[in-house]
């Protein structure tokens, strides 16, 4: 489970949840900023306009009613204490307009409506930046300059910066929320996958929201029930093996001691051997997985051994192309059973047309980090539409590959063992369109 702790980061549901939250937050912030700018612009323009008009009116009154010899001191106090500078308006002044903005235009309209339509505004006068407003005393015209910070508490760039910061924090929150939603699902998926591979997953944490807690609790209970079923099945299988094989052994002994002809004795012994083989197939198919017995297995050596044993049979011709030292992690007995079942399946069903010999090709290789085993015959083959049926328990393709005795569990046992080892099994026709090729990738 350690390797799957962060698999939810790569899941499609996580990113869909994250993108949905991110888009919703982006739309919400865009609407909020737009609404703020629209709803806040007019009241702010009126408030700032009233402040500027008050400053101009008070300054004009102060200059008008102050003694001429005290005006210089008054102007110095206004500049140093209030940040208000007064300059004579000259025709030679180099004037630059104020930066265009929605709130700036609304502010100028509010000021003009009080001070008069002849009021002029500037962003720079003689290269000195500020918020410049013209006013007159008698026939003399003056500039009143305010620091721009007093007019613009924050700029659009600052507003954008604050919005970007909030959006970044919101994205972090979206990541956190998406993780909270998807991590329990990822744990559940990983645990279900482990069970499908025959492994024992760690119990899921029974905490968190009610829905997640109840789902994990139910899953843990299901795992316990499955373990109990596996345990009960192992006990039942052990009992069946003992209860059936004991009388079979007695029957075999009685046949040997009975006064029967050689043909009758051989026929009855063959029937009992067939019954014993069928019971063995049932037990092999129903045997529970035991991953604790896994170890490093040299599959190449197993293939060589099985090929040598099969080559001793009179009706088998073996061709091998085996990669040396191909090792996988698994159960030695189970992997040997897979190889032997496939060779026996090819021997029984895959005899070359017109002969009594099964030509079997055994190949192994390593492709893209996977160990590949192939066992193929040159028999009559199986129709493409029927190939998938071969993996079903108790299925025998009698019409396609000849009558035979057996329970139809050979390939089903192979599939269960391969799946238990985390491998993939594929059945297909041979390259020449005949025979059956079994390909296993570990």
Instruction: List the domain count as a whole number.
Output: 3
Beta strands, count: 12
The SSE order reads HHEEHEEEHHHEHEEHEEHHEE
Shape: rod-shaped
Please compute the radius of gyration using only Cα atoms. Answer: 45 Å
> What proportion strand?
15-25%
- The CATH homologous superfamily name of the largest domain equals Histidine kinase-like ATPase, C-terminal domain
Query: What's the helical proportion of residues?
Result: 40-55%
Assigned CATH architecture of the largest domain? 2-Layer Sandwich
Poorly predicted segments = 399-404
Class derived from helix and strand content:
alpha+beta
On the 0 to 100 scale, the average pLDDT is 77
Which strand order spans the largest sheet, edge to edge or round the barrel?
A: 1-5-4-3-2
* Major pleated sheet: 5 strands, antiparallel
Separation, N- and C-terminal Cα atoms: 20 Å
Q: Explain this structure to me?
A:
With 442 residues, this protein is of the alpha+beta class. The protein has 3 domains: 13-157, Sensor histidine kinase RisS, periplasmic domain (Beta-Lactamase, 2-Layer Sandwich); 197-288, Helix Hairpins, CATH 1.10.287; 291-441, Histidine kinase-like ATPase, C-terminal domain (Heat Shock Protein 90, 2-Layer Sandwich). The protein has 10 helices and 12 strands. The strands form 3 sheets. A 5-stranded antiparallel β-sheet has the order 1-5-4-3-2. A 5-stranded mixed β-sheet has the order 7-9-10-12-11, covered by helices on one side. β9 (358-367) and β10 form a beta hairpin. α1 packs parallel to α3 and α7 (299-311) runs parallel beside α8 (332-349). The two termini are 20 Å apart.
């Amino acid at each position: 489970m350690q390797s799957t702790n962060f698999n939810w980061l790569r899941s499609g549901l996580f990113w869909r949840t994250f993108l949905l939250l991110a888009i919703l937050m982006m739309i919400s912030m865009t609407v909020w900023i737009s609404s703020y700018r629209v709803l806040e612009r007019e009241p702010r323009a009126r408030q700032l306009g009233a402040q500027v008009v008050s400053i101009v009116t008070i300054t004009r009154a102060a200059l008008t009613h102050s003694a001429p010899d005290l005006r210089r001191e008054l102007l110095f106090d206004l500049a140093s204490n209030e940040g208000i500078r007064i300059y004579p308006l000259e025709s030679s002044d180099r004037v630059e307009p104020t930066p265009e903005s929605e709130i700036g235009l609304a502010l100028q309209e509010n000021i003009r409506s009080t001070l008069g339509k002849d009021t002029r505004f500037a962003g720079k006068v003689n290269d000195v930046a500020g918020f410049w407003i013209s006013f007159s005393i008698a026939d003399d015209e003056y500039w009143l300059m305010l620091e721009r910070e007093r007019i613009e508490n924050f700029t659009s760039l600052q507003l954008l910066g604050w919005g970007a910061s909030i959006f970044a924090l919101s994205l972090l929150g979206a990541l956190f929320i998406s993780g909270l939603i998807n991590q329990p699902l990822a744990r559940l998926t990983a645990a279900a996958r482990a069970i499908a591979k025959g492994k024992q997953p760690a119990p899921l944490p029974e905490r968190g929201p009610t829905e997640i807690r109840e789902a994990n609790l139910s899953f843990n209970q299901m795992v316990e029930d499955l373990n109990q079923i596996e345990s009960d099945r192992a006990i039942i299988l052990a009992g069946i093996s003992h209860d059936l094989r004991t009388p079979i052994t007695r029957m075999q002994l009685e046949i040997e001691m009975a006064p029967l002809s050689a043909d009758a004795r051989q026929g009855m012994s063959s029937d009992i051997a067939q019954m014993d083989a069928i019971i063995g197939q049932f037990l092999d198919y129903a045997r529970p997985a035991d991953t604790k017995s896994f170890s490093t297995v040299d599959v190449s050596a197993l293939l060589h051994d099985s090929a040598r044993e099969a080559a001793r049979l009179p009706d088998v011709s073996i061709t091998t192309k085996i990669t040396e030292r191909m090792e996988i992690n698994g159960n030695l007995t189970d992997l040997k059973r897979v190889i032997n079942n496939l060779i026996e399946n090819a021997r029984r069903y895959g005899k070359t047309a017109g002969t009594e010999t099964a030509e079997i090709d055994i190949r192994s290789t390593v492709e893209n980090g996977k160990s590949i085993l192939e066992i193929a015959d040159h028999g009559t083959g199986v129709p493409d539409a029927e190939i998938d049926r071969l993996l079903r328990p108790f299925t025998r393709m009698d019409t396609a590959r000849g009558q035979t005795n057996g329970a139809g569990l050979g390939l089903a046992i192979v599939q269960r063992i391969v799946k238990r080892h985390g491998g993939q099994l594929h059945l297909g026709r041979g390259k020449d369109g005949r025979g059956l090729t079994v390909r296993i990738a570990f």
